[in-house]
Amino acid sequence: MGKLQSKFRKRSDRYRASRDEGTAHSSDSQVVQYEPAHQGSINTVTNLSLDLCVSGGTDQAVVVYDWKQGRMCQSFQGHNREVTKVLCYPGSTWIFSASRDKSVLMWDLNQGDEPIQEFCGHELVVNGLAVSPDGRKLCSGSRDNWMCLWDIETGECENRHNISRNLVTHVCWVPGSSSLVQTSEDKTIRVWDSRVWQVTNTFPAKQYIQTHCDVSPSGNYLVSSSNGFGGQGCEATLWDLRQPGCKVVEYRGHLQTTACCMFLPSPPGGTAKVATSSHDSSIKVWDQNTAACLGSLAMDGAGPLVSLAPIDPTNLLCASFNTGLHLIHVGQGSGQIQGSEQGSSAVSGLDIKVVARF
User: Fold this and answer.
1) Could you tell me if residue 10 is inside a domain?
2) How does pLDDT run across 264-322, given as a tens digit for each residue?
3) Could you tell me the CATH number of the domain that includes residue 99?
4) Paired strand residues for 8
5) What integer pLDDT is reported at residue 267 of this predicted model?
6) C-alpha gyration radius of the chain
7) Quick check: 20 and 357 in contact, CB under 8 A?
8) Does a structural domain hold residue 273?
C-alpha cells in the first residue's frame, strides 16, 4: 500500500492533572482534567484497544489518546476539513478516518505519521464507515447518496450504489456476516448484502431522521437513534435483525436529538444495556429489553454529546462539542429507575459520573 504525504504535529507527552467540579451533574463530583486531545469540537470517538481511543473533530486531526495515562500518543494530520467519523479494525492498529473533505484515510499506529491508504470518490461529506469482519473490505457512505465498497489493500472501489435521498448518517457491519446496516436522513434504515451490493431489507421509515446505529455483538439486534426537538422524536429504537423491520422497544427520555446509541458490554449473566447520548447534554443508560432508564447523567455546558465508545461494562468514552472527551464511569447506585412504556418496578439504578476529561 502506498503512503501519502502528511504533516505530523506531536504534542508533549506530559499532561496537566487538576481537579474540576463543573461537568458531572453532582456537586461533590471530582473530574480529573488531562491534556486536551483536540482544539475545538470533537465529532467522533472510538476504541483502538483497552487503553487507547481514537477521536476526530473540527481541528482536522485524528488523535490517538491513552485515556488511562492521560496522555496523547499520536496526532495524525492529513485531512483538510473536519473529521466526521473514525473507525478501528478490532485486534489491529488500523485506523480509518472520514472527513468533510470527501475522503477516507487509513492509518497504522505502527507505521509512522502518514496515511497508508486513501479512498477517494465521494462528492460530499463522508459520514459512514464500516470494515468487514475479515478486514478486507471497507464500506463508506456519504451525503452524496452513494454507498461504496472498497478493497482495503489496493484502495480500489469495487462497488458503488446510489439511492435517491439516501443521505447516509452511519454504517455498521453485522458481526460475522456479509450484511451491513446504514441509517439515513431520509428516516430509513437499510440492510445491504456486501456480496451483491444491493439492499436486501428496508425498515419502515421513522418519523425523524435516523442519526446513528449499532449492532449487538450477537448480530441479532440493531439500535438506531432519531433526531428531534422538545422531546418529540429524540428516541432510540431496538430492532430485531432476525425479523427485519420488527421493532422491539423504544428508549424515550431525551429532549433533543439523540445523536448516538450503543450496546454496552455486559458481564456474564448481567443485564443487557444500551447507552444513548444527546444534544440535550445528557447520557442515559437503558435496560435493553424493558426500555427502563437505569441511570442518567446531565453534563451541563458540554453542548451536544455526539459520540460514545464503550470500553468495558463500567466505562465508556463520550465526545462533546464544548468540553472535549470524557471518561464516564457506570457503577451500581441506589435509588429508583425511571419507568418505561412497558412498565418497570422500582429497583436500584446506576451511578453514572464523569471521572476524567481530556
Assistant:
1) no
2) 998 888 899 999 999 999 999 999 999 999 999 999 999 999 999 999 999 999 999 99
3) 2.130.10.10
4) 76
5) 85
6) 19
7) yes
8) yes
C-alpha cell at 38: 483536540
Q: Is residue 4 part of a domain?
A: no
Percentage with pLDDT > 70 across the chain: 88
Q: Residue 12 falls within a domain, yes or no?
A: no
- State the SS3 of the chain: CCCCCCCECCCCCCCCCEEECCCCCCCCCCEEECCCCCCCCEEEEEECCCCEEEEEECCCEEEEEECCCCEEEEEEECCCCCEEEEEECCCCCEEEEEECCCEEEEEECCCCCCCCEEEECCCCCEEEEEECCCCCEEEEEECCCEEEEEECCCCCEEEEEECCCCCEEEEEECCCCCEEEEEECCCCEEEEECCCCEEEEECCCCCCCEEEEEECCCCCEEEEEECEECCEECCEEEEECCCCCEEEEEECCCCCCEEEEEEECCCCCCCCEEEEEECCCEEEEEECCCCCEEEEEECCCCCCEEEEEEEECCEEEEEECCCCEEEEEEEECCCCCECCCCCCCCCCCEEEEEEEEC
Mean pLDDT of all residues in the chain? 89
What range defines the domain where residue 168 resides? 18-357
Q: Label the pairing between strands 179-184 and 189-193.
A: antiparallel
How far is it, in rounded angstroms, from Cα 200 to Cα 179? 9
Mean pLDDT of 7-30: 35
The residue with cell 478516518 is: 97
Question: Grid cell 447520557 — which residue?
Answer: 283
Q: How many domains does the chain have?
A: 1
Q: What is the pLDDT of residues 116-134, one digit of tens each?
A: 999 999 999 999 999 999 9
Q: Residues, the chain, total?
A: 358
> What Cα–Cα distance (Å) separates residue 12 from each residue in 34, 69, 75?
12, 13, 11
Q: Cα 297 from chain centroid?
A: 18
